UniProtKB/TrEMBL annotation:
The keyword Disulfide bond does not apply. GO terms for biological process: cell differentiation; protein polyubiquitination. One of its GO terms (molecular function) is ubiquitin protein ligase activity. It comes from Cercocebus atys (Sooty mangabey). This is E3 ubiquitin-protein ligase makorin-2. GO terms for cellular component: cytoplasm; nucleus. InterPro entries: MKRN-like (IPR045072), Znf_C3HC4_RING-type (IPR018957), Znf_CCCH (IPR000571), Znf_RING (IPR001841), Znf_RING/FYVE/PHD (IPR013083), Znf_RING_CS (IPR017907). It is found in: Cytoplasm; Nucleus.
Amino acid sequence: MAEGKTQPSIVSNPGSCSDPQPSPEMKPSSYSNEQQLCPYAAAGECRFGDACVYLHGEVCEICRLRVLHPFDPEQRKAHEKICMLTFEHEMEKAFAFQASQDKVCSICMEVILEKASASERRFGILSNCNHTYCLSCIRQWRCAKQFENPIIKSCPECRVISEFVIPSVYWVEDQNKKNELIEAFKQGMGKKACKYFEQGKGTCPFGSKCLYRHAYPDGRLAEPEKPRKQLSSQGTVRFFNSVRLWDFIENRESRHVPNNEDVDMTELGDLFMHLSGVESSEP
């Protein structure tokens, strides 16, 4: 009878020590593709240590944080690229600040970055020459009413005409960098609707020279206006739509802004920030 008893079936134990162990080259099964890196370890320290349910990344040699995924080469490559670009950007800012420290305004003769008011510590960089001015001084010069347009558009020292004054918290001397700032500004402003044009219901004093977008409600862009001419008493021809960047800024600043429309002042602040090297979430 005993020999006729059915023997109990052997059930494999998945947790037994006889189970095959993953090789060192294999990705452990507990580390799924969807597993996220621990934000605490990435920020510097995780108090859970080895008991943490998240994956602790490897140390990036550039930022020295544990942010590199052990099993995702694409993530590692993407992070290292962004990290290097950030490092280079910070180095550029450091060099720019160092080059700006001792710059003296050629009008007020003050060290620009040592001015008492923080709002005064800005450079007004002329697009076509490298003479140094603080923003307020060169702005006052270019807004003078007693001089003809070619005079106020020229540098007070060398008389070279510059179409643009670039607001900047750093000194910029390289011509290519100046051009990049001007183009970045134009592109950023060109994405915003002009509040003077009002989708065709209003009139913009800057016409085709306006830096904002002139578009109708259906998205069509307005045809560029032809510049109007006026003959002065001295016999010179003046173009009404021949404006300077500072004309644009001055008009924005001098407008009466109702208390419930702070957006215009925000736009003016963005305008300065966009050209000054200071990051802004949006242009």
